[in-house]
Design goal:
By secondary structure, the protein is mainly alpha-helical. The protein is built from two helices and no strands. Keywords: Membrane, Transmembrane, Transmembrane helix.
């Protein structure tokens, strides 16, 4: 019984760790893209305004 619980906890922990890494990477990429796009908008602000 304890071995079954241990295996379930191990697989759940590994899955949570993998999901956390994916979410972290996605968040970093999204944040970088938002910063780059914001900088482009600020740089071209004078061209956009009339």
């Amino acid at each position: 019984m304890n071995e079954k619980i241990y295996k379930t906890m191990a697989s759940s922990g590994a899955g949570s760790l993998a999901l956390g890494i994916v979410v972290l990477a996605t968040g970093l990429v999204t944040g970088i893209l938002m910063i780059v796009n914001g900088a482009r908008l600020l740089r071209r602000k004078s061209e956009i305004l009339i």
